[in-house]
């Protein structure tokens, strides 16, 4: 704790400073017709002696501070007419009336100045990572984007973690989506993502799911009037090709939009495993090598429109469809040896895997605004229906000593789901400094799985069954926020009712779990100086098991290393505390945090050895996990052409619990770090480099070795910024390899896995009737 105390002194010590006689001018920028807030509008406050500049936040609010005098205030925004307020006498703090910006009719002939958003924005309740111009992720997927976001990591299996904790909820535009499960994020093109919000301690307005917090992926939206669009194409080595077309047409009453896209990827990987087994004094050795090639074809379509009923009512309808064809080839080689590592036998196993997936989403949104500023009511209805058909064709043969007989195994799993999501939120500013928020939502999900396995024309009963999984969640929340001088606070309470059932046709299990829980949230913010805020926050979170963690059917690719679900797994609960400083001294932005999380009913994967010396991994409930750490995120802009960013996260954890009379406890510490640099020379070239490091850590059973990776990208604009060409190299040192070790009295197991090697991408994007700073319109809920 001495180190933490010293860290607080060092980080918070520079915040004190002398008071000045300056005054504040603040207000809000909105669209003159829709009355919707306009984010990232440039504000120029100028006089004969002074000039100040600011950019509106995500809610359209701005604040400037300057010496007394006579000023001119100018608002500038791409595709909108500039607006100027003359003769402002700044001799006291001023709250301006809302500035109404009108869209420019001759938008193509105008040249407006717009401030470029910083790569990372530090906000009171979240960090916002803007990826609209991200070079390194061009041509990639949402997984590539997330791996460039501070505090976030996506491992080789597609599992997302936040601050090293995988108990995180991933949303798309604030809503749940099936594309955030089962590595579905790889289906989302990086070109369609505008920004990522990292929310480590969410308020009650967010769902309580996710003990580590929430990652919210914000898709791009178009606001330009008239007909406009963009066309993007890219190639890669290994194959990483993409083609995307986006168009929109906007008038005063309607905004029609559409997007067509396709991607094709070839992914090469491998897995090495070495194990020793000791039984009754006899030791055997297995050397295993798996070679893998995945070929993925993804096709997306999105169409919809906004209807502006009047200045206060907007209705939006949309349809999204995604088809994903997976064709994988795997080869497994098992070399068995005696204690002296002399080969005893070799088994060869080959698999062809085909999985077509079809995902559909229908959405209807309604937004109503009122005469009172910031008062708003939003309601959305979303219906998702999807299915996939997993087919495995496996052959196995003993090649040493040679045996001519070949075993044939066929497995098929047909999954489908119907999901309904309903949400309604109401925001009412009851006074100038206070507001209330309330809302209700329902998440209704019905998932079905029908699988069977046939070995040499004989049905395998142990791998044949039908599953029914129903998850119905009902929630409501209320929160109150207010401001008194330099002190801001927000108090919230959320209630969630969970009704979950999982059963199979063989009646081997029939579990029903019903529980209602309250989730309080507290946020306190104190404004130390004009550019320095101190925040203390608390939230209670829940982490419900996912379907794949409950499903006891695991697939039969590698029977010697199975991962199976546990239908009796219970949810875990987390109490999260965080102390954060947000400061922007000059060209430096620094965001240090101290955090602590206490989790009960913690679940973890346990590896068990079978009588055949096979290994089975399954999630079980343990007792508690305590996790505490320190994190610092910094950005530094020494010049207009250079931006540097460094993120560092150190944490300790202690896990305790027993399962089947075996004690599983672990205590360790580790750290994560990410460095990024961006160099921009207008009209010449832009470059970006990132380096990520993850320290090793010891879990309840396995030791995970350290890992590092680096990416490099270059970009150039042509034809007056209508065309952009980007070249990037990901996994520059071919170092994204995960190594794990398990050591017990009876066996030793070490594995090395790589799911993606180094790859190179070349992408070209061309825009018509659209500026470089304007975005595509893409689905809200995907």
Describe the 3D structure:
- With about 775 residues, the protein is mainly beta.
- The protein is about 5% helix and about 65% strand.
- It contains 3 helices and 47 strands.
- It has a 22-stranded antiparallel beta barrel.
- A hairpin with a 5-residue loop joins strand 11 (about 150-155) and strand 12.
- The longest helix is centred in the N-terminal third of the chain and has 11 residues, at about 1-10.
- Residues about 1-20, about 105-120 and about 775-780 have low confidence and may be disordered.
Question: Any descriptors?
Answer:
single chain; 782 residues; mainly beta; 22-stranded antiparallel barrel; 5-stranded mixed β-sheet; 3 helices; 64% strand; globular; disordered N terminus; disordered C terminus; Plug_dom_sf; transmembrane; OMP_b-brl_3
Can you lay out the helices and strands and say which pair or pack?
Elements: H1 2-12, E1 23-31, E2 42-46, E3 51-55, E4 61-66, E5 69-76, E6 83-90, E7 94-95, E8 99-101, E9 120-122, E10 127-130, H2 142-146, E11 152-154, E12 160-162, E13 168-172, E14 193-199, E15 213-219, E16 226-237, E17 240-250, E18 254-279, E19 282-310, E20 313-337, E21 343-369, E22 376-400, E23 407-428, E24 434-455, E25 458-459, E26 465-484, E27 487-504, E28 510-529, E29 532-543, H3 547-550, E30 561-563, E31 572-583, E32 588-600, E33 603-609, E34 615-621, E35 624-639, E36 642-656, E37 658-659, E38 662-663, E39 666-681, E40 685-694, E41 697-698, E42 702-704, E43 707-718, E44 723-730, E45 738-743, E46 747-754, E47 759-768
